[in-house]
Amino acid sequence: MRYLELCTIEHAKEVVKTLLNELSTEEVSLFELPGRILAEDIVSNVDVPPFDRSRMDGYAVRAKDTYEAEEDKPVTLEIIDKIRAGGNSDLEILSGQCMEIATGAPLPKGADAVVMVEFAEIEENSVKLYKAVSPHENIQPCGNDIMVGELIMRKNTVVSPRDIGAISAVGKNKLNVFKNPSIGLLSTGNELISPEEELGPYKIYDVNTYTIASSILEKGWNFNFYGIVKDNKEDLMDKLKKAMNEDVILLSGGTSAGVGDLTSTAIEELGGEILVHGIKIKPGKPTIIGRIGKKLVVGLPGYPTSCLTIFDVLFNEKGKTMRAQVYNRYMSAKGREEYLPVSIIRGKDGYGAYPVLKGSEAITSLTYADGYIIIPENREIVEDEMFDVHMFGDIRIGLNIIGSHCVGIDRILRKGQILARTVNTGSLGGIMAVKRNEADIAGIHLLDNNGEYNISYLKKYNVTDSVLVRGYVREQGFMFKKELGIESMEDLIEKIRYYKIINRNKGSGTRILFDKFLKENDIDKNSINGYDIEAKTHSAVGAAVSMGKAQIGLGISTISDHYDLEFIPIADENYDLLIPKEKLYDEDIIKFIETLKNEELPFKKSKDTGKIIYGC
């Protein structure tokens, strides 16, 4: 048997994926969504939660009314109302007043904190508080979990049960997915008989059909069995013609010596073409992949283990448990066995498991978690040790890109077809992630008082064994709707105190730039309405302004253009990439940098784009 050209398994998987992605799409409900592949990005149109709400059962208060509260000297406040989850109060809390409030209930007017019920003692229409609270304590702010404009899931992502909560939380009931392929199954071999027949001399029962059929059903797909094919071209072509109403045709045992040539010949004589004939993999070297029109035809090996392995490699990626190192210290609750959700990243010496600590009330805790580790009830501290990670579902480990959000990163990943997990922590968060060996790439754009970007911050935070690669130049500025009537930067500076602003998260380069702008123009940040309202991405800022959640936001010009907003530039900034030296020769890092240099991006590039501009 001849192999025209052995290909890599990555190429074979890409061929299959490309043909499956040519299938049409359909709209399904949330109940039908798990296991399906998204045919669209999911972007939130609402804030989650949509209002400021209490994290605890307790009392909604003005924080300053509690400052003198102590265990032996409580503060007494008047209870003027009671709010349950799903309810509300029209009253406003004034000095010396409070309201009883349930977990999840909306915060009433005038309140800025919640005292837990454990630190309170009711006396008729008043309550004694034995603990002071600070502003925003025990409150989950509006949009704290998910903000308007935030990307929840990307197109081509397989939806798992843990993703459903985040999708339903943003009010998405029906979504477009790629249609599940219909599968036609054929088994080839003169020696094969059905299990319902009596075993005759030199015959064996068909195993592969039922093994593959079970795997197909496990994926939620449907199949039809077109019978056992004898080792002759006429029978094979006749069965293939009958299966042509399916999206995918699988032949088990259709790759052995002689039969493999029959399979490739039959495909070609039916007007098809051979895309792969032989893969650099053991087992499974003789695998055949072809197409007849838009129909995908795959010839799988005949040995059951080889057959199932190749099917799994080409059509499925399984993950049950894996070993991973928990690096960071985690304090567990003594006396209880804890199932701690973790996110898996590729670390310096293997795989790392990082606890997902967004809070149990945050729906996206499960979205970010790949699985969980089990901490025994007699353990209080977990640090720098190996654990079995119990996987929620399939996992694919790619690059870890942690730092400042930029649509340019998404463009590079998409153009380069690079698998990656992006975590938007802001520039300083990216620097710290590189120092902890958590990030493969950190996008940063930090401006110091001397007008220099990024390098001084690497020195300030003692970053070592890393390089700074020149990225591109982004135009930062203020975005707002045309009807706001702002004509110039001078006009904006004069009026900014009178408008509602949306800020970026702490540690982001954009927030640092905004703080610098306020300082240079002698504007007190406490006078800015919305200074403490944070968005995690530029897209979320643009969406908030476009939808009227805020009147002015600071972000990059590409987002302003996307939302058709007015834009007043404030600065051109260098968005650069901090990369650990040991990662520079990683295949995906090389592909990322090459894509950065060669692909068209919505930002200006310099002659140094993609080059190392600083080492430490």
List the helices and strands and how they pair.
Layout: H1 9-20, E1 25-29, E2 42-43, E3 53-54, E4 58-61, E5 75-83, E6 97-101, E7 113-116, E8 120-123, E9 126-129, E10 139-140, E11 151-153, H2 161-169, E12 174-178, E13 182-188, E14 192-193, E15 204-205, H3 208-218, E16 222-229, H4 233-242, E17 248-252, H5 259-269, E18 273-277, E19 288-292, E20 295-300, H6 304-315, E21 321-326, E22 330-331, E23 338-347, E24 350-355, H7 364-368, E25 371-375, E26 381-382, E27 385-391, E28 399-403, H8 407-416, E29 420-424, H9 427-435, E30 442-444, H10 455-460, E31 466-480, H11 489-495, E32 501-504, H12 509-520, E33 534-535, H13 538-546, E34 552-556, H14 557-562, E35 566-580, H15 587-598, E36 612-615
Helix pairs in contact: 3-6, 4-5, 8-15
Pathway: Cofactor biosynthesis; molybdopterin biosynthesis
GO molecular function: molybdopterin molybdotransferase activity
Organism: Methanococcus maripaludis (strain C5 / ATCC BAA-1333)
Give structural notes.
GO terms for molecular function: molybdopterin molybdotransferase activity. One of its GO terms (cellular component) is cytoplasm. It holds the Pfam family MoCF_biosynth. One of its GO terms (biological process) is Mo-molybdopterin cofactor biosynthetic process. Pathway: Cofactor biosynthesis; molybdopterin biosynthesis. The structure is a single chain. With 616 residues, the protein is an alpha+beta fold. It has 5 domains: 9-20 and 181-315, Molybdenum Cofactor Biosythetic Enzyme, Chain A, CATH 3.40.980.10; 25-48 and 145-178, Molybdopterin biosynthesis moea protein, domain 2 (Alpha-Beta Complex), CATH 3.90.105; 53-140, Molybdopterin biosynthesis moea protein, domain 3 (Molybdopterin biosynthesis moeA protein, domain 3, Beta Complex), CATH 2.170.190.11; 321-391, Beta-clip, CATH 2.40.340.10; 442-615, 3-Layer(aba) Sandwich (D-Maltodextrin-Binding Protein, domain 2). Helix content is 23%, strand content 30%. Strands 30, 31, 32, 33, 34, 35 and 36 form a 7-stranded mixed sheet that branches. A hairpin with a 2-residue loop joins β23 and β24. α4 (233-242) packs across α5 (259-269) and α8 packs across α15 (587-598). The radius of gyration is 30 Å and the shape is globular. The model is unreliable at 359-363 (pLDDT under 50).
